[in-house]
Amino acid sequence: xxxxxxxxxxxxxxxxxxxxxxxxxxxxxxxxxxxxxxxxxxxxxxxxxxxxxxxxxxxxxxxxxxxxxxxxxxxxxxxxxxxxxxxxxxxxxxxxxxxxxxxxxxxxxxxxxxxxxxxxxxxxxxxxxxxxxxxxxxxxxxxx
Length: 144
Description:
This protein is mostly helical. It is built from three helices and no strands.
C-alpha cells in the first residue's frame, strides 16, 4: 500500500476517533436534555388538557358570559356598598356634631353650677354673722 494512502487512512481514523470521542458525551447529554424536554412537554400537555376540561365543561354557558354576569353583579354590590359607606360617613359626621353640641352644653352647665356654688358660698359668708341671732329666735319661739 502506498504511503500516501496509509496517511489518508490514518487521518480518517484519527478524525473519526476525535469525532466519536467528542460526539458520544454530546449525544448522551443531548439525549438527556431531549428526555427532560419531552417530560416537560408531556406535563404541559397534561396541564393544558386539565385546563381545557375546566374551561370547556359540560355546561351550555360560555365562560366569558358567566364571568361578565358575575362582574356586573360584583360591580352592583360594590356600588351598593359604596352608598352604604357614604351613609355611614354622614351618620358618623352627624353623631360627632351632636357630641360636640352636647359637650358644649355640658361645659355651659358646669360653668353655671360653679357660678351658683360661688353665689351660695358668698351668701353663706355674708349671713354667717346672723346665725347666733337666728338660733336665739328659734329657741325663743320653740320654748313655749
